[in-house]
Design the sequence.
């Protein structure tokens, strides 16, 4: 694996290899007082974020440090981007300075793909940490890891993805990955929050959340991305919550074994009730924990690979 840019096109064997490596890393570190492996000693990992982030950025930094890599954080707000430097020049600068891997988050869809092209000659690995409304592959991988942990195999499991699908790169990455791993995906959203061309995707589409919950093995609530909305996509926050929020009453419609996910940050009281977010069926905290191990696995496959004995 040279880069991780998207789950679209990622085959099942490659995805399972990352998930299995994450499981092994988690078992290896479990119970250790000092969580440190020598696997990426001497490697330099740079996070380049043009958008705000808590979970993704922190978990990548922890993942790199737990594997003994040198991790450097570059924020667009405090870099030469504010002086007018282009994305290409910033990337070439980081590669010239010795970056083995650049983890990028950018508001433009396709930005990670462009970086991979520009840095092909230096051989710098690129990880897409979210590009516009396109994809967020490591989020989908950690979601899959969490579902495997709770449900076992994803084959023939039914996962409902609920809410602002139109603006969600998380939803896009999960659609590709979950269906590749054999799950059935149903999108539940108002018509205004579904992307054009949704009929061509290997998913079922519904506008009735109550009808879908009893047959779902997992429900993934999405954040309403108001910062990407221009115009009215639904009448009000209250009406959205009534139709598409996961309340305590709706939680009871799910099977007993069902799992509740949310990529965060959560809008408690609108997308998901606080009591639901903190319920035993919720795996939201586990998603964050698994995110560290999955991102460790991604860095391992990019920078060390199968030939690395450590």
Sequence:
């Amino acid at each position: 694996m040279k880069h991780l840019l998207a789950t679209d096109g990622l085959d099942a064997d490659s995805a399972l290899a990352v998930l299995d490596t994450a499981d092994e890393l988690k078992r290896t570190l479990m119970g250790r007082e000092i969580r440190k492996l020598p696997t990426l000693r001497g490697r330099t990992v740079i996070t380049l974020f043009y958008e705000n982030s808590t979970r993704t950025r922190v978990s990548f930094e922890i993942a790199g440090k737990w594997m003994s890599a040198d991790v450097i954080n570059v924020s667009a707000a405090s870099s030469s981007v504010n002086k007018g430097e282009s994305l290409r020049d910033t990337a070439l600068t980081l590669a010239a300075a010795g970056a083995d891997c650049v983890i990028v988050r950018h508001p433009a869809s396709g930005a990670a793909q462009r970086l991979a092209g520009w840095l092909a000659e230096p051989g710098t690995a690129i990880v897409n940490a979210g590009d516009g409304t396109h994809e967020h592959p490591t989020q989908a991988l950690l979601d899959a890891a969490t579902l495997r942990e709770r449900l076992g195999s994803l084959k023939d499991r039914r996962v409902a993805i609920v809410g602002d699908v139109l603006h969600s790169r998380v939803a896009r990455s999960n659609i590709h990955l979950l269906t590749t791993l054999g799950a059935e995906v149903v999108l539940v959203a108002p018509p205004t929050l579904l992307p054009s061309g949704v009929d061509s995707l290997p998913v079922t589409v519904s506008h009735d959340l109550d009808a879908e919950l009893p047959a779902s093995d997992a429900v993934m609530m999405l954040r309403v991305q108001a910062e990407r909305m221009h115009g009215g996509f639904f009448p009000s926050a209250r009406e959205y919550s009534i139709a598409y929020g996961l309340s305590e009453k709706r939680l009871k419609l799910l099977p007993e074994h069902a799992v509740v996910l949310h990529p965060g940050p959560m809008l408690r009281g609108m997308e998901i009730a606080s009591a639901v977010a903190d319920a035993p069926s919720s795996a939201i905290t586990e998603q964050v924990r698994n995110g560290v191990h999955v991102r460790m696995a991604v860095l391992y496959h990019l920078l060390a690979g199968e030939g690395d004995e450590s």
